[in-house]
Write a structure and sequence with these properties.
membrane, single chain, mainly alpha, rod-shaped, Flp pilus assembly protein, pilin Flp, 3 helices
Length: 64
C-alpha cells in the first residue's frame, strides 16, 4: 500500500492535463475580454454613425 501511494505521488500525468486546462481557460478568458472590448466600441460607433446619418441632409450634401 505504501508503494502504491509513493508511485501515485510521483505520477505527473495528471499535472499535464491541469496545465492544459489552465492554459485553455486563460485563452478563453482573453478571448472574452477582447470580444467585450470590441463589442463596446462598436456599439458606440454605431450610435454615432446613426446620429450623423440621421442629421445629414442628402440634397444639400450631394447638390453641393
Amino acid at each position: 500500500m505504501i508503494k502504491f501511494i509513493k508511485n501515485f505521488r510521483k505520477d505527473e500525468a495528471g499535472a499535464v492535463t491541469v496545465d492544459w486546462v489552465v492554459l485553455t481557460a486563460a485563452v478563453v478568458g482573453l478571448g472574452v475580454a477582447a470580444f467585450t472590448a470590441v463589442e463596446t466600441s462598436t456599439s458606440g460607433l454605431t450610435t454615432e454613425m446613426t446620429t450623423a446619418i440621421g442629421a445629414a441632409d442628402a440634397t444639400t450634401t450631394i447638390g453641393g
